[in-house]
Amino acid sequence: MSPQKIIIDTDPGQDDAVAILLALASPEELDVLGITAVAGNVPLSLTSKNARIICELAGKTDVKVFAGCDAPLERPLITAEHVHGKTGLDGPTLPDPAMPLTDGHAVDFIIDTFRSHEAGTVTLCTLGPLTNVAVALQRAPDIAEKIQRVVMMGGAYFEVGNITPTAEFNIYVDPEAAKLVFAAGIPITVLPLDVTHKALVTTERNDAFRALGSAAGIAVAEMTDFFERFDKEKYGSNGAPLHDPCVIAWLLKPDIFSGREINVEIETGSALTLGMTVADWWRVSGRPANALFIGDIDANAFFTLLTERLARY
Ligand code: BDR
Ligand code: CA
């Protein structure tokens, strides 16, 4: 079978970086058509640079990396340096990228890619705020029916929120964009905090990355060393959650996840619950399902997969 074509829309971020490494290490299953950077964890100038730093770490300097939107649809940008550090990739010392950005805007790349491929043959993986995707859908509504699926890290139900008491970061940064994406009639898989908070990098798991001895393995361990302090302090958890790699892992091994087809709506009106993913887990609203909302993960299988793939570098 030919590999699944994907676009990775991302705001690296250490966990985004691990997701990109996982995807680029899996060419039998995944064909990365391009990486589109968006403002999120850090401003666009850094996310578009960080995406290239990671491609170079992976030895994949031919991957197309586009810069996209530098601010949410209707709101000022909120960033997360308190989690990811000033550069977004704090932890390891990695060289500035030599590879250039690909000419053109990320949104144009997304539109052109879906228009030039047969319907249902390209999947969009989103690891950050949904601004690029929403702008693409606003400008080219015809692509909605061509997108095979959006597989996103975002939202929460049982875990409720991380950036506010009721909202997860990616959705909170651009709730209007998220609302538009969930209303577009596209098949969606959601990897929420409910799942990613179970994908914890324990000391043992991080030692396994470090023991790979490669530049990529050591960088992943050092990135985790850096950003785990935040979640350990906040949640008292056993290690850092690897949010974004869950998106790629769902494509590689869907069997290690379980979830429900449910209705998910995004709160954009309330100051108190702005960006909340109102997920009808118990199916009480009568509203039609618009997403596969994942609730559980076999964390050991996930880390086995990740370590195995990182060992290819
Ligand atoms: C999400 O927000 C970012 O900080 C991470 O990269 C991840 O995509 C988790 O809420
Ligand atoms: Ca991210």
Q: List low-pLDDT spans.
A: none
Question: What ligand species are in this complex?
Answer: beta-D-ribofuranose, calcium ion
Q: How do the strands line up in the largest sheet?
A: 3-2-1-4-5-6-12-9
Q: What is the assigned CATH homologous superfamily?
A: Ribonucleoside hydrolase-like
Along the chain, the helix and strand elements come as: EHEHEHHEHEHHEHEHHEHEEEEH
Task: Assign the CATH class.
Answer: Alpha Beta
- Rounded Rg: 18 Å
Topology at a glance:
Layout: E1 4-10, H1 14-24, E2 30-37, H2 44-57, E3 65-67, H3 81-84, H4 106-116, E4 122-126, H5 131-139, E5 147-153, H6 169-173, H7 175-182, E6 188-191, H8 193-196, E7 200-201, H9 203-211, H10 215-235, E8 240-241, H11 245-252, E9 257-262, E10 264-266, E11 277-279, E12 291-297, H12 299-310
Parallel strand pairs: 1-2, 1-4, 2-3, 4-5, 5-6, 6-12
Antiparallel strand pairs: 7-8, 9-12, 10-11
Helix pairs in contact: 1-2, 1-10, 1-11, 4-5, 5-7, 9-10
Explain how this protein is built:
- The chain is globular.
- By secondary structure, it is an alpha/beta fold.
- Helix content is 37%, strand content 18%.
- Helix 5 (131-139) crosses helix 7.
- The strands form 3 sheets. It has an 8-stranded mixed sheet, with helices on both faces. It has a two-stranded antiparallel ribbon with strand order 7-8. A two-stranded antiparallel sheet has the order 10-11.
- It is built from 12 helices and 12 strands.
- It has one domain: Alpha-Beta Complex (Inosine-uridine Nucleoside N-ribohydrolase, Chain A), CATH 3.90.245.10.
- Strand 1 (4-10), helix 1 (14-24) and strand 2 form a beta-alpha-beta unit.
- Residues 11, 13, 16, 41, 127-128, 244 line the site of calcium ion.
